Amino acid sequence: MTIDVLSLATAGVRGLTPYVPGKPVEALERELGVTNAIKLASNENPLGPSPKALAAIQNALPEIARYPDGGGFALKHALASKLKVAPEQITLGNGSSDVIEFAARIFVAPGDEVVFSQHAFAMYPILTQAIGGRAVEVAARDWGHDLDAMAQAVSDKARLVFVTNPSNPTGTWSDRASLRRFLERIPPRVIVVLDEAYFEYVENPDYPDGILLLRDFPNLIVARTFSKVYGLAGLRVGYSISSHAMADLLNRIRPPFNVNSLAQAAAQAALNDDEHLRRTRQLNHVGMQQLTDGFRRLDLAFIPSVGNFICVEVGDAARINDALLHQGVIVRPIASYGMPRHLRVTIGLPEENSRFLAALKTVLGR
Ligand SMILES: *Cc1c(COP(=O)(O)O)cnc(C)c1O
C-alpha cells in the first residue's frame, strides 16, 4: 500500500520550498570533476576555528559517551560575563537559527502575521510558512531594511518582527537612532527578534548593540551565533539574550540537549580567544578592500557591506554563477532573495579573493 504523505502534511509544510545552502566543495568536485575548488558561499571564517577551540574539543572528546550539560552552565556563564548580562537571560541554540525558530513557534499561531524585510534571511519566510503564519514582506530601501515602513506594516494581526542587523545577504545595516525609533513604534505585544549573526564584524560607532536595548524593550530577543566570526559553523551553536521571563519561555520548547558537549566546550574557548577574533576581523577588513577594489576595476556595482560578505551586480547572475562553478569557484546566487542580478561573495583568504576576481574577470570577458 502506498500513501500520499504530502497530503497528510500541514498546509504550511505542503507549500514549503526548502532552504538552499551554499554548495559544499566536495559536491562541486564530484559533480563537475574540478579540483581545488574554493568556497566563498556561506559566510564562514576563512581562518577556520580558533586553535583554542580545537584544543577544547580534544579535551572534551573522552567525555562524549555522556550527555551534554543540558543547562549549558559553563558556556552560559562565560557568555554572561563577556556580555555583561545574567546567565538566566541566555538561551542556547543548535545554531542561532534554532533559537530564532523557538521564538517563531512560541509566538506565532496559524494566521498570525510575521513582518520582515525584502531581501532578508531566507529562514524567516521558511519558518513563517512552516508554522502557518502569514508573511508580511516589506519593500527594502537601498537594499536594506526600511524600518519606518516595517513599523507601519505591523498590524493588529502581527505577532513577530524579524530585524537583521547587519542584514544577510545585503550587508546593509541600521544605525542606533533608527533602530531605537523603530522599537519605540512597535507595540509591546509584538515580539522583535533582532538577528545579529554578524555583530562582531561591524566597526562603525553608530552601529547599535542589541543587548543595550533589552532594558527598554522587554519584547526584544537578540540572536547571535558562533557560526560566523568564531568559525564554528559545523558545530552548530548560537544563543539569544533576552529578559529572564522571555528566556524561560524559550527554554520551555528548547530540546534539552540541543547543543552538544563538543560545541559547548569549543564555543567557550573561542569566546575568549581575542587574538583569533582580531585576526579574523583584520583579514575581513583587508579582504573587503581587495574585493571592492577588484569590482571597481571590473566596473561592477556592489552593495556596500559591513559583514564578511558582499553582493556584487553581475547581470545574469545564474549564468555567471554557473561559469564560476566550472572555474572551481563557489559563491552564492541570490535570485531566491529577489536579487537575480547579484551574487553574494564571502570574504576569503587573500589568495581566494584573487582567484575569485580572476575567475570573474574571465567569465565576464573583461
Ligand atoms: C548565518 C546566519 C544565522 C545563523 O546561523 P546559525 O549557523 O544557525 O547560527 C542567522 N541569521 C543570519 C542572518 C545569518 O546569516
Please give the oligomerization state of what you see: single chain
- The CATH superfamily label of the largest domain reads Type I PLP-dependent aspartate aminotransferase-like (Major domain)
SS summary, helix count: 14
* CATH topology label of the largest domain: Aspartate Aminotransferase, domain 2
CATH architecture of the largest domain: 3-Layer(aba) Sandwich
Mean pLDDT: 96
Cα(first) to Cα(last) distance is 59 Å
Q: Which strand order do you get reading across the main beta sheet?
A: 2-8-7-6-5-3-4
Strand tally is 13
Taken in chain order, the helices and strands follow as HHHEHHEHEHEHEHEEEHHHEEHEEEH
Bound molecules: pyridoxal-5'-phosphate
Q: Helical content, roughly?
A: 25-40%
Look at the helices and sheets and give the structural class.
alpha/beta
